[in-house]
TrEMBL record:
GO CC term (a single one): ATP-binding cassette (ABC) transporter complex, substrate-binding subunit-containing
UniProt xrefs under CDD domains: ABC_Carb_Solutes_like
Domain of life: Bacteria
UniProt keyword terms in alphabetical order: ATP-binding, Cell membrane, Membrane, Nucleotide-binding, Transport
Gene that produces this protein: ugpC
Record-annotated ABC transporter domain positions: 14-244
Protein name: sn-glycerol-3-phosphate import ATP-binding protein UgpC
Single annotated GO MF: ATP binding
Transmembrane segments: none
Pfam family, one: ABC_tran
Phylogenetic lineage: Bacteria, Pseudomonadati, Planctomycetota, Planctomycetia, Isosphaerales
Length: 392
């Protein structure tokens, strides 16, 4: 698992080591290592059933792992009951306590931990002000909107723990503008307050906007952890390339022959083989691996429709003629789904009219920034990790 971006300078709030829990019917998590530092937010992303909630429940102490360790602020927490772990968790659609006013809701966790008095009251007021619910402190949840109720539940978690807050799909029932507004208030509060937050979400844009790092989980295993831009640009595994992004990358299987002078990519450009000189980073990374085939992942922005006024800026990259299958509107841009040879690619167009289904359009494949994967293991063939010069 690739994690090049852990900040070793800040003390870890949470360290999960080789955390494993297998449910008898399948599912669970395997050998998860995750470190979250002071001041950090980590977003956990993965398909449904991949083990995201299980991971949070293990950290919270609501499930006991079969093996592995959990360290909180440098102390082993594996034998601690949930209420002694000093953390707070918010579940999907968890309501505030209906019989308590907002102030008591916010202070509930503090009181449960025997913390009352003026310091707690100050903390409640600060959290309420940060989340825009200060004027609602005397109200009951029944007198609040859905968004305000969410703010109360999140505020309670933030008031309860200044060390670690675990959030499981906390914004999922809200409409996009409200989600964004509560999310940015929560980020501002966390930046002021410190501690660490782990967020589980299905919303990729939200995960990227919220987390300093993304943790991508599949079938109970962490596949990659890193800064959002790093994970997007340099996926460690073909799964990450296809999963991350809206839409994700298209994967094109090609043949490869690396010779002394050049590498030949077969089956990419229909009826031709594409030659790339030796010395280019990704070619060198493939040399010596004895791969007969390779998977090329192309994000929509790495496929460029060629229009006459752009042709003068062409670089040396494969150009092909693709046939348009479908065009989807995405507000200011449109997504074109097109085929050439055995491949299907997606790319953006900002043109208001055309192309239309059935049109044949020339496109350029930007191999300079594309990613390559071992077709058997799915792992990235990464020039820098393989020690080759990164020219390509
Ligand atoms: N208590 C349990 N007993 C048995 N199996 C469970 C239990 N909890 C979860 N599972 C199984 O473990 C797998 C992971 O579940 P989990 O809820 O962690 O996934 P998730 O990634 O949070 O999914 P979603 O995004 O749909 O909420 C699933 O296959 C689920 O059916």
């Amino acid at each position: 698992m690739l994690d090049s971006t852990v900040d070793h300078m800040r003390p870890p709030v949470l360290e999960a080591r080789a955390l494993t829990l297998q449910y008898s019917g399948g599912g669970g998590v395997q050998a998860i290592d995750l470190m979250v530092a002071e001041g950090e937010r980590v977003s956990v992303l993965g398909p449904s059933g991949s083990g995201k909630t299980t991971l949070l429940r293990l950290i919270a102490g609501l499930e006991r792992p079969e093996s592995g360790e959990i360290w909180l602020d440098g102390r082993s927490a594996i034998d601690l009951a949930p209420r002694h772990r000093g953390l707070a968790m918010v579940f999907q659609e968890q309501p505030p306590y209906p019989h308590l006013d907002v102030e008591r809701n916010l202070g509930f966790g503090l009181r449960a931990r025997g913390r009352a008095g003026s310091e707690s009251r100050d903390r409640i007021r600060r959290v309420a002000a940060s989340l825009g619910i200060e004027s609602m402190l005397p109200r009951r949840p029944a007198e609040l909107s859905g968004g305000e109720r969410r703010r109360v539940v999140l505020g309670r978690a933030m008031a309860t723990s200044r060390r670690l807050v675990l959030l499981d799909e906390p914004f999922s029932a809200l409409d996009p503008p409200l989600r964004a507004s509560i999310r940015s208030d929560l980020i501002a509060l966390h930046d002021r307050q410190g501690g660490a937050i782990v967020l589980v979400t299905h919303d990729q844009a939200e995960a990227m906007a919220f987390g300093h790092r993304l943790a991508i989980i599949r079938d109970g295993s962490l596949i990659q952890v890193g800064a959002p831009a790093e994970v997007y640009r340099r996926p460690a595994h073909r799964f990450v390339a296809e999963f991350l992004g809206d839409p994700g990358a298209s994967v094109l299987r090609c043949g490869i022959r690396v010779g002394p002078e050049s590498a030949r990519i077969d089956g990419l450009v229909p009826g031709a083989s594409w030659a790339v000189p030796r010395g280019v980073g990704w070619v060198e990374a493939m040399a010596g691996r004895n791969l007969g085939e390779v998977d090329l992942a192309l994000r929509p922005e790495q496929v460029v429709r060629l229009v006459p006024d752009r042709s003068s800026r062409l670089t040396e990259a494969p150009t092909v003629v693709a046939r348009v299958d479908r065009v989807e509107s995405r507000g200011p841009t449109r997504l074109v789904i097109a085929r050439f040879g055995q491949h299907r690619v997606r790319f953006w167009t900002e043109e208001v009219s055309g192309p239309d289904p059935g049109d044949r359009v020339p496109i350029r494949l930007d191999l300079q920034t594309a990613c390559w994967f071992d077709p058997v293991t799915g792992e990235a063939i990464n020039p820098s990790r393989d020690g080759a010069t990164d020219q390509g």
